[in-house]
Amino acid sequence: MTATATRTGLTLSGVTLRYGAGDTLVTALDDVDLTVEPGEVVAVAGPSGSGKSSLLAVAGALITPTEGTVAIGGTDVTAAGPARRTELRRTGIGYVFQASNLLPSLTARDQLLLVAHLAGRVTREHRDRAAELLDAVGMTAKADRRPHELSGGERQRVGIARALMNRPALLLADEPTAALDQQRGRDVVALLAEQAHARGTATVLVTHDEGLLDRADRVVRIRDGRMG
Ligand SMILES: Nc1ncnc2c1ncn2[C@@H]1O[C@H](COP(=O)(O)OP(=O)(O)OP(=O)(O)O)[C@@H](O)[C@H]1O
């Protein structure tokens, strides 16, 4: 990584995303500009169909926008080839989903170590990092439990730790509190913010829960694909 890369989180410039063509043409994102600094938590709020999932898909290098550029950690992903994009998705981006998407047969600790295992060999450093992250999300005492032995909030905490395992420049969270009650939802967002600030991770949190917005550093609103 270059010096520039370490200072950059996520930058979307003039991003437009259209689905379909002719009569079925939908403009899901319309000339969107968004910058998320390292360590900053930006909440994206908007009604159903406003373009929130489309924004995450573009920011996560899953979909190439029709127009505009997306840079993650200083790398222009819209100019990168498929192999580089795949590599960036694996190493530069952490994802937290609506439900934690943990593997049923693995303990909390092994959910984290699986990330290292898939990338190659599990080293002592990986084990130390998994232990540090489980501690950071308050799950050390339950590190040997499997998902069915954890509450919904605890599963999300493990999901957050797992998403941070690769030290991503960018963390994308898609309605991470959808399965939780109000208080647990607030706790999970507070944890996301705490970790983003401590680790310098640019974080985008998509939510339609207005009660969670005060935990973000900044709130951006999207409507009909336009950010305002
Ligand atoms: N694959 C697709 N093909 C065609 N249109 C799509 C596709 N995906 C999304 N859209 C349309 O793009 C617009 C934005 O959808 P998007 O899923 O980004 O909204 P959202 O804000 O995430 O909605 P929700 O809160 O309901 O999940 C909507 O009009 C939607 O119908």
Automatic annotation (TrEMBL):
InterPro entries: AAA+_ATPase (IPR003593), ABC_transporter-like_ATP-bd (IPR003439), ABC_transporter-like_CS (IPR017871), ABC_transpr_LolD-like (IPR015854), MacB-like_ATP-bd (IPR017911), P-loop_NTPase (IPR027417). GO terms for molecular function: ATP binding; ATP hydrolysis activity; transmembrane transporter activity. Keywords: ATP-binding, Nucleotide-binding, Transport. Residues 10-227 form the ABC transporter domain. Coiled coil: none annotated. GO terms for cellular component: plasma membrane. PANTHER family: ABC TRANSPORTER RELATED, IMPORT ATP-BINDING PROTEIN. This is Hemin ABC transporter ATP-binding protein. The lineage of its organism: Bacteria, Bacillati, Actinomycetota, Actinomycetes, Streptosporangiales.
